[in-house]
């Protein structure tokens, strides 16, 4: 049966107004963005944190600091002072973390051979890349084996992106022209409900969370998720907010859409198996059909036509696609490994 609402069971996790720092850098960034301290010296603190980090993608302090800095631009956490969005010291802090994060991704993400910069060849290469993805099958586990507790943790992990679904990719719209721009707007129009507020995908997911007894406030579970989950969202934000990474955010969206339809069918089946109704499964069922259409638009009309119009962006298009598969694979691997070992995928001290 559906679980008791988590607002009754785990109040320590709730509340976007209570983001907890994970180290000296994230503490200083949070203080600067909420007016507790001046931002002076933060970029030097970020440099020190980068030097100490063994793995930027899995470093809690760095990823939370970057997440909060991006949240300032999204306006997704209301407690952050909007007058600090363009504070030069905070921008330099963000750039310091981004440089290390991007460098690590470029070193660790395996890249396919580049296709010819034509619509057909790029689309074919992207479909081949996503079909060959050998990442862990979290969706199959959710469909067949997951406990209710694990299914709820899955929703919590997904909430970091999905309650802001489509927003990171929308940064690319004003930077595109012609065929790629039309294709991205077509996809995003569906993501934002086609003019129907109740069908905005982020709102449909919020309904899923409420139906499962979870808090649908954006940021309510930031404290609970590990660094790698924040890194997945941060990677999208980094690609979307930096104009020089236009190809990467386009490639990311193409891979994201191409690997969405079948897993969402399995996720929906998993929640039905656990006894949940349409209020919870609607989000996943919606994406089975929608993303089957979006993958064709994203692969050909968006990524393929962008490569054909601007061949110099092709390497980053393929990098963005490969990075999507790789980093989301790390997130799925973390969850699946935790579930199979019978332990929580959430951070210690934040159980549901």
Primary descriptors:
352 residues, mainly alpha, Heme Oxygenase, Chain A, 2 domains, globular, disordered N terminus
In a few lines, what is going on in this structure?
This protein has 352 residues and is an all-alpha fold.
N→C terminal distance: 16 Å
Uncertain spans, ≥5 residues at pLDDT below 50? 1-17
Total number of helical segments? 16
Query: CATH fold name of the largest domain, please?
Result: Heme Oxygenase, Chain A
Shape: globular
So, the CATH homologous superfamily of the largest domain? Heme oxygenase-like
- Structural domain count: 2
Q: Which whole number gives the mean pLDDT?
A: 93
Number of strands: 0
The amount of beta strand, in percent, is under 5%
Radius of gyration: 19 Å
* CATH architecture label name of the largest domain: Up-down Bundle
State the name of the first-level CATH class of the largest domain: Mainly Alpha
Order of helices and strands: HHHHHHHHHHHHHHHH
> How much helicity do the residues have?
55-70%
Category by helix and strand content: mainly alpha
| Sheet with most strands | none
